[in-house]
From TrEMBL:
This is Peptide deformylase. The keyword Endoplasmic reticulum does not apply. The keyword Metal-binding applies. The gene is def. Keywords: Hydrolase, Iron, Metal-binding, Protein biosynthesis. Binds 1 Fe(2+) ion. Its cofactor is Fe(2+). It is an enzyme of class 3 (hydrolase). The active site is at 131. It comes from Microbacterium gawkjiense. The lineage of its organism: Bacteria, Bacillati, Actinomycetota, Actinomycetes, Micrococcales.
């Protein structure tokens, strides 16, 4: 339907825990369409509903040419977290090593209410963790070691978009 503008650091919706989706109605169908359209833009690996201003548990992903979505995801991870280069559309221009597990799986539902499972390693695992964090009101900045987080926050304050 539409590529929606991305909410930026400082917007309260990015720090709010999202509500589960109880009913799959026309609003949810429209939201998923917008999430899929928004993640299809070049350079995007994921877009969570709060990033487009909607506080519900849904996100889209675009990894290795595969675009999809999930509603009400529950995250599982495996392996010791390792520093992984990461950025965020809601914190443009920053790139830092966040701690991420090498494998992840989300279990949720699709628009028909059927169970949906997405799992993988590498960039897909990172994207699943990153987008689930958004649904819990977290940004990747929260995953940075304290000294690097301090540096990142300085970069945010000095940015031309903040």
């Amino acid at each position: 339907m539409a590529v929606r503008p991305i909410r930026l650091f400082g917007d309260p919706v990015l720090r709010s825990v999202c509500a589960p989706i109880d009913d799959i109605d026309e609003g949810v169908v429209s939201l998923v369409s917008d999430l899929v359209d928004s993640v299809a833009e070049p350079g995007r690996a994921g877009v969570a509903a709060p990033q487009i201003g909607v506080g519900v548990r849904a996100f889209s992903y675009n990894v290795d040419g595969v675009i999809g979505y999930i509603l009400n995801p529950t995250l599982e991870v495996a392996g010791d977290p390792v520093p992984t280069g990461e950025g965020c559309l809601s914190v443009p221009g920053l790139w830092h090593d966040a701690l991420r597990h090498p494998w992840a799986r989300v279990t949720g539902i699709d628009l028909h209410g059927d169970e949906l499972v997405i799992e993988g390693e590498g960039l897909l695992a990172q994207a699943l963790q990153h987008e689930c964090d958004h649904l819990d009101g977290m940004l990747y900045l929260d995953r940075l070691p304290k000294d690097i987080r301090r540096q990142a926050m300085r970069e945010v304050r000095e940015s031309d978009w903040f």
